[in-house]
Amino acid sequence: MRIQQGEARGRRLEGPRDQSTRPLLDQIRESLFGGLGDVFESKAVLDLFCGVGSFGLEALSRGARWATFVDASRSTLEILERNLETLGFGPRAEVLRGDALKVPDESTPSRRSFAVAFLDPPFKMFASREATDRVLARTKALLASPILEPGGLVLLRVPTQPGHTEALQELESIPMSESKTHGESTIFQFRSGRRAVC
Fold it and tell me: What is the DSSP string of 110-178?
């Protein structure tokens, strides 16, 4: 796993020690960021269910001013903190341990607003209707939240394999700018304050 572009291009990242964390594959990250362009340049990004931080670290390398990382796993966040130190991105990052469906609190203004929020929940969450509803509620709340810049983006990665189609159907109720399938997952992109264009 390597940084694809920017100031840390080609630098190797320490990955997870087990299969419970699924970092974005290099080719998926390259495709995703190629589509985003410079929307986060000199701005802040929010990486929820961050794992070892592959999304936020790539954004920092490509010019993001700040990244906030949130995950519940202490051991995974320890790897993320080592990656931040290795790349020299520590002064431009905040690492929070907690429930990524609650932290940070999207209902109140914060000291910084985010141009992009990325959610990559464990795929097993989508096997439960209750957990799926919580993920979708968090997505909708972020789109209406003061912590997201006006016109900011929320990206949500969901599984596309059989047994998880209900989650995809639920997403149709959220104004959406686009989606793209990468193998076993689809990344949906929503824009705050904007109606569907596809």
Answer: -SS-EEEEEE---GGGGGSHHHHHHHHHHHHHHHT-TTEEEEEEEEEEEE-STT-HHHHHHGGGS--SE
pLDDT tens, 57-78?
A: 999 999 999 999 999 999 999 9
Neighbours of 120 (CB within 10 A): 24
> What is the CATH number that goes with domain 26-191?
3.40.50.150
Residue whose tokens read 């824009």: 191
With a CB cutoff of 8 Å and minimum separation 6, the contacts of 36 are: 116, 153
Contact predicate 25/54, CB 8 Å: no
Bridge-based pairing of strands 44-48 and 178-182 is unpaired
DSSP state of 90: G
Q: Are 11 and 4 contacting, i.e. CB atoms less than 8 angstroms apart? A: no
pTM of the model: 0.89
